[in-house]
Structure formats: structure tokens, C-alpha cells
Design brief:
By secondary structure, the protein is of the alpha+beta class. The chain contains 11 helices and 9 strands. Bound molecules: 3,4-dihydroxyphenylalanine (DAH).
């Protein structure tokens, strides 16, 4: 009987050692340890043995069963480890395969244009200063030399929240805010980008909401030639180094004198084409010397201080530079349009 048991254990261990699937282990477990296994037969035969042999054989059976159980566990671990190793082998990454291209987002042409204008002026030592979009009538109009009944208010048909509060119609109120803040009257040199609002009809060239960048310099010896030099530099940076500028007299209540600024046509180089309506010049922005009334309203003595101001229309600059013929394209967020810039 002892021999039979040892042989059976030997045979079981050998067979288990060859198992390569978990399922095989289950089948072998049933075969060697299940109800119908030979071990069970041994247990039944045990009671017919002489009493002095019973413990010895019983012990042998138990040791045999333990060995088989142990082997089953060992094989289970091995099979699982093999499986993982196999999987890892199959899933190794081929780093030499070309990667998938991920479409990368970028800044909208509106933002790009503002940032380009900012860069030009920051390069000249200007400080960026933002103002509120919900503004007081006082700053938006009154202190900019546009008193309550001034007819030039009509040019900026406005969105009022109350009698004295409105959505700012231009970035010029930041001029007033910057001068008022500057109590010790140090030279002021700021640029102010932002959104402005008007009760305009929306069409190809107008929007009730658009962007402006204001520039302001106030110092003791700021002259019209400083303004002209600054405008020429900005025009050349934005439209090409070969560009020239032309100043035409204009009117803004907050500047005196006021100018409309043209740049020589960058399409025909000034010889005349459809872009410049055969004039050789394209209007780009308004500017001027800060009106004495604005200086006075902000506590500056016009006999001591002078300054100039510039107002860029962000969309206008972007449209001119990139040949965009409808302002609404800048607001509709069509990727076919946006991704061109
Ligand atoms: N604020 C003017 C507007 O919105 C634009 C402008 C013109 C600003 C002349 C200026 C300036 O600073 O000097 O129509």
C-alpha cells in the first residue's frame, strides 16, 4: 500500500508539472484529490488495515495530498506569471513607429494682433494697463472733453446701464484713469488693450463689440514729432519696413490737433490699386496731441505738460493685414477660418 501511495504521488507530481493551463490544473486536482480519486480509495481501504499500520499509512496519505496541493499552488503561480510575461512580450511598444499627430490649438487672430501691438509698445518702454469695460460716463466722455450735450457723443452711440454708467465705447477712458492715478506726475507711458461696445448695427465692417488698443504718453516735452515717429515705427512693424505714413487733419474731442493716420498701400506699394481705392494710402487709425481740457480735468497744467494718444482698432488692423473682408468672421469661431492664422 505504501508503494502504491508513493507511486501515485510521484505520478501526480509529474503530470501536474506538465500542466500549462489553469483548466488542466482543475482537471488534475479532481483526478488526484476528488471524491472519485485513488486517494479516496486508499482512505476507504485504511479501515481494513491492521491497527498498528493505520497511523503510518494515514500519515503517508496526508503527506501525499499536501504535496499534491502544494504542487497545484506552485503551478498556478507559474502559469499566471507565464501568462503575464507572454502578454508583456506581445505588447512591447515599438518606439520607432511614427507617432500620431495631435492637432495643436493656438491663439485667435484677435489675440495675436493685440499681442503684436503690445510687443511693439512694450519694446518702446510702455506699460500695459487695463481698464474696466463697465465705465462711468465721467471717464468715458466728460473728462475726455465730451460734456453731456456734446454732439460728438453721437458718433459713439452707447449702451447705458444707468444715467452715469455705460459699457465703455472706447479704451480712451483708461487715459483719464492713468493720469488721475499718477498723483506725483511722473511721465505716463501706457498702452491699454481691451473690448469696447457701441449700439452699432452689425455688418461687414461694424460690430457692436470690438477691440481697441489705446496708447498714451504724457510728459513735459512730448511733441507732435514724437507722435509721428511712434506712428511710423508702429506702421512699419505692422505693415512692413518699407511703409510710409501720412497724417491728415481730423477731429476727436480729446485730442488737439487730431490726425487720421494712413499707411502707404502694402499691396501696390503706393502706386494705386483696388485695395487702396487707387489713392496709394490706407487709413489705419486715429491719433493726436492730448487736448488741454483733458490734461486740466486730470489735474495737469497744460503749460507744463504735453502728450499724445493713439487709438488702434484691433479688428481693422487684423483685417487689413490679412485681407479679411468681413469682421464677423472674427467672431464666429469657424475653425476653417481661425486655423489660417
Ligand atoms: N477713442 C477713439 C474712438 O474710439 C479712437 C481714438 C482716436 C483714440 C484718437 C485716441 C486718439 O487716443 O488720439 O473712436
Amino acid at each position: 500500500m505504501e508503494k502504491k501511495i508513493n507511486k501515485l504521488v510521484e505520478e501526480a507530481l509529474q503530470e501536474l508539472g506538465k500542466a500549462s493551463k489553469l483548466n488542466d490544473l482543475m482537471v488534475l486536482k479532481a483526478k488526484y484529490l476528488g471524491k472519485k480519486s485513488q486517494f479516496n480509495d486508499f482512505m476507504r481501504e485504511l479501515k481494513d488495515l491492521p491497527n498498528n499500520e493505520k497511523p503510518k499509512v494515514g500519515k503517508l496519505v496526508n503527506i501525499g495530498k499536501n504535496k499534491i496541493n502544494h504542487k497545484i499552488e506552485e503551478m498556478k503561480e507559474k502559469i499566471e506569471a507565464d501568462k503575464i510575461n507572454q502578454k508583456l512580450k506581445e505588447e512591447t511598444i515599438d518606439v520607432t513607429l511614427p507617432g500620431k499627430k495631435i492637432a495643436q490649438g493656438k491663439k485667435h487672430i484677435f489675440t495675436q494682433t493685440i499681442e503684436e501691438i503690445e510687443d511693439i509698445f512694450v519694446g518702446l518702454g510702455y506699460e500695459i494697463k487695463e481698464g474696466p469695460e463697465i465705465e462711468e460716463d465721467k471717464y468715458n466722455f466728460e473728462m475726455l472733453n465730451l460734456p453731456k450735450d456734446h454732439p460728438a457723443r453721437d458718433m459713439q452711440d452707447s449702451l447705458y446701464i444707468s444715467e452715469e454708467i455705460l459699457l465703455r465705447t472706447h479704451t480712451s477712458p483708461v487715459q483719464v484713469r492713468s493720469l488721475l492715478e499718477n498723483a506725483d506726475k511722473k511721465p505716463v507711458k501706457i498702452i491699454s488693450p481691451g473690448r469696447v461696445y457701441r449700439k452699432d448695427d452689425d455688418d461687414q465692417t461694424h460690430s457692436h463689440q470690438f477691440g481697441q488698443v489705446e496708447a498714451l504718453v504724457v510728459d513735459k516735452k512730448t511733441s507732435l514729432s514724437d507722435l509721428k515717429g511712434t506712428l511710423l515705427l508702429a506702421a512699419q512693424k505692422l505693415f512692413g519696413e518699407e511703409r510710409q505714413i501720412r497724417l491728415r487733419p481730423s477731429y476727436f474731442p480729446f485730442t488737439e490737433p487730431s490726425v487720421e493716420v494712413d499707411v502707404s498701400c502694402y499691396k501696390c506699394n503706393g502706386t494705386g490699386c483696388s485695395m487702396c481705392k487707387n489713392t496709394g494710402w490706407i487709413e489705419i487709425l486715429g491719433a493726436g496731441m492730448v487736448n488741454n481740457n483733458v490734461l486740466k480735468a486730470c489735474g495737469y497744467d497744460p503749460n507744463e505738460f504735453q502728450g499724445f494718444a493713439i487709438g488702434f482698432g484691433v479688428e481693422r488692423i487684423a483685417m487689413l493685414r490679412h485681407g479679411i473682408d468681413d469682421i464677423r468672421l472674427l467672431y464666429t469661431n469657424d475653425l476653417r477660418f481661425n486655423s489660417q492664422f
